[in-house]
Design a protein that fits this description.
The chain has 819 residues and is α+β, with helices and mostly antiparallel strands. The chain is 54% helix and 7% strand.
Length: 819
Amino acid sequence: MSDTRRRVKVYTLNEDRQWDDRGTGHVSSTYVERLKGMSLLVRAESDGSLLLESKINPNTAYQKQQDTLIVWSEAENYDLALSFQEKAGCDEIWEKICQVQGKDPSVEVTQDLIESEEEHIEEMPETSPLIDLPTCELNKLEEIADLVTSVLSSPIRREKLALALENEGYIKKLLQLFQVCENLENTEGLHHLYEIIRGILFLNKATLFEVMFSDECIMDVVGCLEYDPSLAQPKRHREFLTKTAKFKEVIPITDSELRQKIHQTYRVQYIQDIILPTPSVFEENFLSTLTSFIFFNKVEIVSMLQEDEKFLSEVFAQLTDEATDDDKRCELVNFFKEFCAFSQTLQPQNRDAFFKTLAKLGILPALEIVMGMDDLQVRSAATDIFSYLVEFSPSMVREFVMQEAQQSDDDILLINVVIEQMICDTDPELGGAVQLMGLLRTLIDPENMLATANKTEKSEFLNFFYNHCMHVLTAPLLANTSEDKCEKDAVVGSTKSNTICPDNYQTAQLLALILELLTFCVEHHTYHIKNYIMNKDLLRRVLVLMNSKHTFLALCALRFMRRIIGLKDEFYNRYITKGNLFEPVINALLDNGTRYNLLNSAVIELFEFIRVEDIKSLIAHIVENFYNALESIEYVQTFKGLKTKYEQEKDRQNQKLNSVPSILRSNRFRRDARALEEDEEMWFNEDEEEEGEAVVPPVEKSKQEDDFPDSYEKFMETKKAKESEDKENLPKRTSAGGFKFTFSHSASAANGANGANGKSVAAQTSPASSNGSSSKNATLTTAVTAAKGSLVGLVDYPDDEDDDEEEETSPRKRPRLGS
């Protein structure tokens, strides 16, 4: 179906009297057996589905407007329109409709003269096909007003009145009477004229509107509508339209037809929005044609402006010219904002052409300049234009910023300008920031990124974004959770109240927005965000916000962690356990006390998820480090359930080990305890040197039965010693009521050379170590790389290289044989 003549857009009129686009397709007129008559069929061009099936009813009034539109009412309160791509196609279908109705195709409206038999007998005697209008004189105004208001309830009489008004050129005569009444100050006559003109508008006829809204008549129509009988004093609408409302031409418009169309649209919109009262339920459909009139006028204006390339080029030249003064630039930006708003009325292919024209002329570099300006109004208008562009084609915007990155500094990149506008929003409610955050989200959403044969937009753009823009986005978050701020509080006994967190509501809101965006990244960007989180130790910084007095911000931080855990990625899990990052969450739960609120529920849901999904490495970490603090929580079974899962896994591992043949546990595989310890120290030292690198290791394989069989006996030997040490290191509530965890790294534990001391080493991330000084933990957040990118095992067994490549666990967990 490549026939563009029959290509149409189907519109329906919604409850708000706006035209809704129902899709694009190809129209045909054929006999439909089921409907017993000739019907209009529109099949979607995308998938061939039926968009419209409408029988051409002999009694329905069809209207042809502006050469490419056919409008009709299918049923009470259900208006339809077909907008044709080409005039020829419209004429063809119009002929078919007129043929069915027995009309001459030269008419603009096919009349609906019979609605039902009863009304036909009652209201349409054969001798009187039209309504006889009283002569247009001052003393007949009351009679005319009564006639006009009486016909509004009957569709047939409305049609007949409209025909009579049209045939006799009656509207112009009425407007001459208006001038007479105004000169004579005949208030009663003016009140009647208000009723008459309002009634004629409610007849909802495009042909009458053409007369009423012409240049010579429209001001008199507005004049009539000033004299509402219910008002003590008439309104001064004409004064507003002629003196107050100024037509601003940013660049002089030379086309007189275009100027006239702009004036007409503005005035008709004014009549609809300001002068006419909001329609009641019974009048909702009375002004549907007026809405259509405005809608299609806007389409025409955009098309005419778009075709005038000289005009648009001049606008752009002035917008980007440094010599342009601020007031002029403000007007130019507002013009574009309105221009883009009007463009929403275009059909998709025309809207495509419209935005491509803007892109070709350089709308994006121009926006970059104006978005950085001081004037709030200009920035706001520029944001609106930017949102139209992002909505239309995120790919176009992405392509522009990636090309721009090759030529300019990070600071002036369009996306960074947008992020800075978001961060610097002065509105206490952050209205602008919320809008910009939505646009950023669209731009970084892989769902709308294209993959072509020769390049992948997703990988290219995300590489660009994480290299050039991510640091700008996270700067406020990192600044508000910086280590020097946190270290001041990292003393035993510190409580929620003295942790420095953004107490300013506006800052808290901004951080919440940034966290929402980062949470979106965790969900959709996989390894880019993973590397970023590891390199910046981002989750630890985010969890500082669990101390915020603004619960919504603490919940945002928790949601970020929940999304990470929801991925069930062992790499993230190791990062969390090594960094002891459950501690701030558990502190928040305990500080929340017995309050049954959203924070309480959200934290419990996090642990419940871990239990239900049976994430073994996290279950082991939580039970081993925090169970004593959590076992008192009995109003949910979550924590007891975690303990049960942990014990079941432990039993399972023991059973597996007992079934391992004794030859595998012979001394041949055993190594000296001190050598083990040295290897671990080497691992931690290397980690410090290579801080800042994050390599994603392969996900753990579940080969526990082969994993370190020779260390099991040593593990059992030191288990008792370790348990007694654990009791000393259990988390305790501090004197100030806060709940902090400290772990000692005692010599006795270190000498238990089976690696069980890994627990105390990995857990040295609490605010205070046993000697009271803050410990440096950055080393625990990075993975270790070897020269060729292969992973260095925690403990080096020359005889067991294959296993090492397949699996890496933290030193604390290896000997337990269950993760």
